[in-house]
Specification:
Length: 85
């Protein structure tokens, strides 16, 4: 078995990488966004009760916005990552 340094110097000696899994990223993004939405609702209730500051709902809102960016990216690049190889 080659050493780690040998593999770093000569990457052609490594075993080939396994093929990447084909995943529908919409499901992943929507699952994450739903978790951020639940966290946003909880943090808004906690904010109304005075247990947290504005940072918790702002963080959850940022998570939702990043999820929307991820969905837009997925829609634009769907053909690239789901094309048959």
């Amino acid at each position: 078995m080659p050493s780690m340094i040998s593999l770093l110097i000569h990457p052609e000696r490594r075993r080939p990488n396994p093929p990447a899994l084909r995943v529908d990223l919409r499901h992943v993004a929507l699952a994450g966004m739903s978790l951020w939405a639940i966290a946003l609702a909880v943090s808004l209730v906690l904010l109304a009760l005075g247990h947290v500051t504005y940072q918790a709902p702002a963080t959850c809102g940022a998570g939702l916005l990043l999820g929307l960016v991820g969905l837009a990216w997925e829609r634009r690049n769907r053909a690239e990552y789901r094309s048959p190889e």
